[in-house]
């Protein structure tokens, strides 16, 4: 209590935003975005291992440039497809099968992933996320996705369906996709390069406005046809992924 307050006077606390004022539920989003959620992402560097080996990333400054580029290309594309999948899942009658839009999204995302290694990684991560999501929040659409494609669905589509099963919005699905696109390589940089984790997380905090802007941009596209969703390419990531897949010794799967 300050000297200006009378005895017994209660200071009015600053009011925090309540859950009803947010555009998505916070706790499920934190669960989905948590790196400890058993979806397999910890085993992948998002292209960072190959970039580090080529000395394109070697300190916080070059890491920031790598992350900014990844977010604006692959990150935005993944976020837009996750948001669109979440919206499609919310509109779907919970009967057998999956919505036709999911097949369109899968086709379009495959076309936007020219590197076979990255296509395989996306579907592998999709299968792993699907397994974790079905255990955490059983849902008919998640069940149907397990058999929709022989190699499994792309990870962003599963992320969108999982977000909807968790009661989240397309905006939240996009935010989760971008969070993963940034924190996965950042964590890998700490492990591979021995970077100061405090400096790396300061960098991530600096990127927060970009993450927010991109998540809003992705969520605004949920009503667009799948063919009109972002197709931002990162050719160097595609080429590096193919080279990385041939390494006999590597710390990360991709």
What does this structure look like?
The termini are far apart. 43% of the residues are buried. The protein has helices spanning 26-33, 48-53, 60-90, 100-111, 116-136, 140-145, 155-165, 170-193, 197-206, 208-219, 235-244. With 254 residues, it is an all-alpha fold. The chain has 11 helices and no strands. Helix 3 runs parallel beside helix 10. 59% of the residues lie in helices and 0% in strands. It has a domain at 56-232: Urease accessory protein UreF (Orthogonal Bundle), CATH 1.10.4190.
Give me a quick take on this structure.
By secondary structure, this protein is mainly α. 59% of the residues lie in helices and 0% in strands.
Describe the structure using short key phrases.
single chain; 254 residues; mainly alpha; Urease accessory protein UreF; 59% helix; 0% strand; globular; disordered N terminus
Per-chain topology:
Layout: H1 26-33, H2 48-53, H3 60-90, H4 100-111, H5 116-136, H6 140-145, H7 155-165, H8 170-193, H9 197-206, H10 208-219, H11 235-244
């Amino acid at each position: 209590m300050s000297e200006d307050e009378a005895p017994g006077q209660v200071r009015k606390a600053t009011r925090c935003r309540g859950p009803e004022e947010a555009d998505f539920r916070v706790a499920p989003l934190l669960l989905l975005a948590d790196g400890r959620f058993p979806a397999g992402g910890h085993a992948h560097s998002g292209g960072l291992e190959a970039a580090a080996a080529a000395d394109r990333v070697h300190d916080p400054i070059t890491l920031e440039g790598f992350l900014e580029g990844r977010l604006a290309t692959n990150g935005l594309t993944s976020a837009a497809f996750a948001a669109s999948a979440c919206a499609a899942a919310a509109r779907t009658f919970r009967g057998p099968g999956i919505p036709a839009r999911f097949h369109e999204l899968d086709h379009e995302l495959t076309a936007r992933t020219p590197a076979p290694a990255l296509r395989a990684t996306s579907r592998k991560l999709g299968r792993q996320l699907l397994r974790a999501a079905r255990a955490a929040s059983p849902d008919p659409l998640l069940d149907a996705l397990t058999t929709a494609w022989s190699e499994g669905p792309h990870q962003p589509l599963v992320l969108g369906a999982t977000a909807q099963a968790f009661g989240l919005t397309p905006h939240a699905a996009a935010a989760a996709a971008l969070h993963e696109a940034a924190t996965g390589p950042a964590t890998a940089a700490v492990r591979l390069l021995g970077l100061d984790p405090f400096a790396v997380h300061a960098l991530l905090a600096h990127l927060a406005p970009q993450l927010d802007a991109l998540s809003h941009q992705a969520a605004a596209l949920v009503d667009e046809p799948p063919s009109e969703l972002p197709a931002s390419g990162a050719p160097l990531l595609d080429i590096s992924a193919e080279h990385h897949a041939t390494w006999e010794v590597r710390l990360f799967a991709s």
